[in-house]
């Protein structure tokens, strides 16, 4: 019998049904859903409006704006999810990815002060912090014994920091963690760095790349709608500039992710518009790696009256993204925001990636997230196995880590 390392999962099942209550070592293949080929063409729906969309999905035809709206509006969650699972399985079979990563939030001082954000504050308040380069290095050194493959670093727009701080930060991180990919700065920060450095966008990106920037996270666009922008984050760059930054970064050979913040005041139409805008940019550049729907958390924000997103909406956002974003390889279920259990379910609703170990998430937890602030590799592994998928640890570029 194949031997397995001890994970929490191994305690959970008496797989051989011997009624002993004692965990039995069991090879994954015997408990997984096996990745059997999906029978093409057959699917029944509770919502008849989904049938014409299925015609398109199983023949690989691109979905329209109206299709996106129908998917979001449908009460047939399992129907939407089964279509997304079909597409996900065609691309990734029974594999689900995770990365051994570490988050670094170098400052929470931010001049944008978006109404949905609980993390940002003003200089001089009791919670304000800004880490020196030495402090950031010390935080990385604390975890030096762990096999971290990716550093995910974002922060506020702190007017006391100059451009040299940012290139110095990247260089110092590359020195401490040469084996890890530096995935840093949202498009909002890149725009800001271009303004404080006096350099063009392209030159700013080039200087950051020279200092070690290898990938960029997806945040900052929120929902690309002028209405939502003006109401919730008027000081932040808008749609046109966000797209310009992403296009420039892709042209420099740096892949990025893309996100959408949902569950606040946005409409279904604005969500679909957002997805189609991303799909169009991806057609031009091919530079997006993963899409991550971000569930809004309202605690400690100016929008505290807005209730938490529902599990149905969390799954819908994963599934609709998988179906609309036909040119994105990866859809992440960000367990930090939707919780570990919902993230497990999302793997059967179109997601192929759970992000990673994280180690000390701050942005969502300041806004009331109740998920863990980090997970161990064994916990990631068990989460994926428990959902019936085969865990693959990856690097930032989805190469399996040996
Ligand atoms: O842009 C801020 C969001 C984003 C809240 O690329 C909030 O791999 C929910 O982009 N409730 C930053 N969301 C995080 C981000 C990200 C996260 C994980 C993985 C990747 C990736 C990117 O966080 C912001 C904003 O959309 N955010 N406040 C909040 N209260």
Determine the fraction of residues in helical runs and give it as a percent range.
40-55%
What's the shape?
Answer: globular
Which cofactors or ions or other ligands sit in this model? Answer: ligand V47
Largest sheet: 4 strands, parallel
Structural class: alpha/beta
The name of the CATH architecture is Alpha-Beta Barrel
Fourth-level CATH superfamily: Aldolase class I
| Integer-rounded radius of gyration | 21 Å
Strand arrangement, major sheet:
2-3-4-5
Quickly count the helices. Answer: 17
CATH class value:
Alpha Beta
The unreliable regions are 1-34
Annotation, overall tally of beta strands: 10
CATH topology group: TIM Barrel
Number of domains: 1
Give the CA-CA distance, first to last residue: 22 Å
What is the succession of H and E elements? Answer: HHHHHEEHEHEHHEHHEHEHEHHEHHE
Classify the oligomer.
Answer: single chain
Strand fraction equals 5-15%
Can you describe this structure?
By secondary structure, this protein is α/β, with parallel strands linked by helices. The chain contains 17 helices and ten strands. The protein has a four-stranded parallel β-sheet with strand order 2-3-4-5. The protein has a three-stranded parallel β-sheet with strand order 9-1-10, with helices on one face. Strands 6-7-8 form a three-stranded parallel β-sheet. Helix 4 (about 65-75) packs across helix 12 (about 270-285), helix 6 packs parallel to helix 7 and helix 8 crosses helix 11. Residues about 1-35 have low confidence and may be disordered. Bound molecules: ligand V47. Ligand V47 binds near residues 118, 222, 294, 296 and 297.
């Amino acid at each position: 019998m194949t031997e397995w390392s001890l994970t929490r999962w191994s305690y959970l099942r008496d797989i051989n049904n011997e009624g002993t209550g004692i965990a039995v070592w069991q090879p994954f293949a015997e408990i997984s859903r096996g990745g059997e080929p999906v029978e093409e063409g057959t699917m029944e729906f509770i919502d008849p409006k989904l049938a014409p969309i299925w015609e398109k999905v199983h023949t690989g035809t691109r979905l329209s704006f109206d299709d996106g709206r129908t998917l979001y509006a449908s009460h047939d969650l399992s129907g939407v999810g089964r279509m997304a699972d079909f597409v996900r399985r065609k691309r990734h079979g029974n594999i689900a990815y995770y990365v051994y990563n570490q988050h670094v939030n170098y400052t929470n001082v931010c001049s944008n002060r978006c109404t949905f954000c609980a993390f940002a504050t003003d200089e001089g308040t009791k919670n304000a912090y800004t880490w020196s380069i030495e402090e950031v290095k010390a935080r990385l050194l604390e975890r030096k014994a762990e096999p971290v493959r990716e550093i995910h670093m974002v922060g506020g727009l702190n007017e006391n920091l100059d451009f040299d701080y940012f290139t110095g930060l990247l260089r110092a991180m590359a020195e401490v963690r040469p084996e890890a990919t530096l995935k840093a700065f949202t498009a909002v920060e890149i725009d800001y760095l271009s303004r404080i450095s006096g350099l063009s966008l392209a030159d700013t990106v080039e200087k950051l790349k020279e200092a070690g920037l290898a990938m960029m996270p997806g945040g900052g666009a929120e929902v690309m709608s002028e209405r939502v922008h003006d109401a919730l984050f008027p000081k932040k760059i808008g749609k046109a500039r966000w797209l310009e930054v992403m296009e420039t970064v892709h042209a420099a050979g740096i892949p990025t992710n893309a996100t959408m913040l949902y569950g606040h005041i946005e409409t279904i139409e604005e969500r679909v518009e957002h997805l189609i805008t991303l799909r169009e940019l991806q057609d031009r550049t091919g530079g997006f790696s993963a899409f991550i729907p971000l569930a809004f958390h309202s605690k400690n924000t100016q929008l505290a009256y807005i209730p938490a997103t529902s599990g149905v909406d969390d799954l819908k956002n994963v599934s609709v993204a998988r179906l609309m974003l036909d040119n994105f390889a990866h859809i992440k279920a960000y367990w930090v925001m939707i919780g570990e259990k919902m993230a497990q379910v999302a793997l059967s609703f179109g997601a192929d990636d759970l992000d990673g170990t994280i180690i000390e998430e701050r942005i969502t937890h300041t806004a009331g997230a109740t998920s863990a602030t980090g997970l161990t590799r064994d916990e990631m592994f068990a989460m994926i196995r428990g959902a019936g998928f085969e865990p693959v640890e990856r690097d930032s570029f989805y190469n399996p880590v040996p």
